Amino acid sequence: MGQLIKVCKALTIAGSDSGGGAGIQADLKTFQEFGVYGMSVITAVTAQNTTGVQGVYPVPLEGLEQQLESIGNDLTPDALKTGMLFSGEYIERIAFYIKKFSWKNIVVDPVMIAKGGAELLGVEALEAMQKHMLPLAKVVTPNIPEAEALTGIKIDTAESKVEAARVLFDQGAEYVVIKGGHMDEEGIVTDFIYDGEGILELTDKRVDTKNTHGTGCTFSAALTAELAYGKTVESAIEQAKKYIQTAIEHGIDVGSGHGPVNHFAFRRIGHE
Ligand SMILES: Nc1ncnc2c1ncn2[C@@H]1O[C@H](COP(=O)(O)OP(=O)(O)OP(=O)(O)O)[C@@H](O)[C@H]1O
Ligand SMILES: Cc1ncc(COP(=O)(O)O)c(N)n1
């Protein structure tokens, strides 16, 4: 019998995007690119493509819990990320299982609204996110509108960004990454990192493209993969930023709307 290879394992708890650009699909593609064994717990199935979200179908609560049990009873993720969690009730149950199985290295991507405007998490779930998920988070990775919704702070200045990061830290996340994709900065995009003491800003050139569907999912999945390898949070964030930059720069021609990023850009770009 051949010798089995030890691998790092990462879990995503998120929604399915039938179009393959965001959600579970983006996460698993990214895990694969990083050489990490990917697992998934699906909260909801979305009928979605590059033009928008056509439907949202939650997995029955029992099915959600059974997936979490199945993973926990056999497979221990070295790191996990959450994406679209659908509702406050689902968030509460997911937090319960994360604690039950003592899972660590948790990246909370507080997905709320799709780029096209579709609601992926009810507003009633904000409190559950604050109360149950943020205290479990090694890293929370909101975009600007999500950080505003979770803190009630309008982010339009450098000071308000720091203030919002402090509030998210106080809500329990060890590291806060406020992503800059939605910020109107000329030619650049800056992600802002806060760990309760210091601030780090990662800036790169803004790619002029409409194909940014799934950027947040892909970034947080790359970060989770790096944490699964046991990397420090700072180094994992830097690596994730490099990966998403490359994936956006080498965009692919898929669909007629807001296309996905190129998950395999590190490896092979397109074909003849
Ligand atoms: N046009 C761009 N050029 C370069 N980097 C970008 C661009 N847009 C976003 N990014 C980067 O992509 C990552 C995700 O940021 P963004 O603010 O878009 O998250 P998001 O809104 O949660 O994404 P999504 O909802 O599409 O999954 C960040 O690291 C950000 O800096
Ligand atoms: C299942 C699922 N999860 C997350 C997103 C967010 O990605 P985006 O904001 O790029 O639409 C999405 N559209 N669908």
TrEMBL record:
InterPro entries: HMP/HMP-P_kinase_dom, PM/HMP-P_kinase-1, Ribokinase-like
NCBIfam families: HMP-P_kinase
Family, similarity comment: Belongs to the ThiD family.
Name this polypeptide is given: Hydroxymethylpyrimidine/phosphomethylpyrimidine kinase
Catalyzed reactions per annotation: 4-amino-5-hydroxymethyl-2-methylpyrimidine + ATP = 4-amino-2-methyl-5-(phosphooxymethyl)pyrimidine + ADP + H(+); 4-amino-2-methyl-5-(phosphooxymethyl)pyrimidine + ATP = 4-amino-2-methyl-5-(diphosphooxymethyl)pyrimidine + ADP
EC number(s) stated in the UniProt entry for this protein: 2.7.1.49, 2.7.4.7
An annotated Gene Ontology molecular function: hydroxymethylpyrimidine kinase activity
Record key words, sorted: Kinase, Thiamine biosynthesis, Transferase
Pathway of action: Cofactor biosynthesis; thiamine diphosphate biosynthesis; 4-amino-2-methyl-5-diphosphomethylpyrimidine from 5-amino-1-(5-phospho-D-ribosyl)imidazole: step 3/3; Cofactor biosynthesis; thiamine diphosphate biosynthesis; 4-amino-2-methyl-5-diphosphomethylpyrimidine from 5-amino-1-(5-phospho-D-ribosyl)imidazole: step 2/3
Pfam families tied to this protein: Phos_pyr_kin
Limits of the Pyridoxamine kinase/Phosphomethylpyrimidine kinase domain: 17-262
